[in-house]
Write a structure and sequence with these properties.
The protein contains no helices and 5 strands. With 63 residues, it is mainly beta.
Length: 63
């Protein structure tokens, strides 16, 4: 999972939508480091969580 992610991509954590948009910082194997708007930097186990690419509607205030 998440093997398509590259640094700079914008993602959303499906289980933590309140974290806001996240920007991928790095991906080493299954470990993905993401800097989220409202949570900061988080290292995610890509085997347990499938991040999804952000869409235009994911921006705060667009709802």
């Amino acid at each position: 999972m998440n093997e398509f992610l590259e640094p700079g991509m914008l993602v959303v954590h499906p289980g933590q939508p309140d974290w806001g948009l996240g920007q991928v910082q790095s991906r080493i194997g299954a470990r993905v480091t993401v800097n989220f708007e409202h949570r900061g930097k988080v290292v995610i186990d890509g085997r347990a969580v499938r991040l999804r690419l952000a869409e235009a509607g994911d921006r705060q205030g667009d709802h």
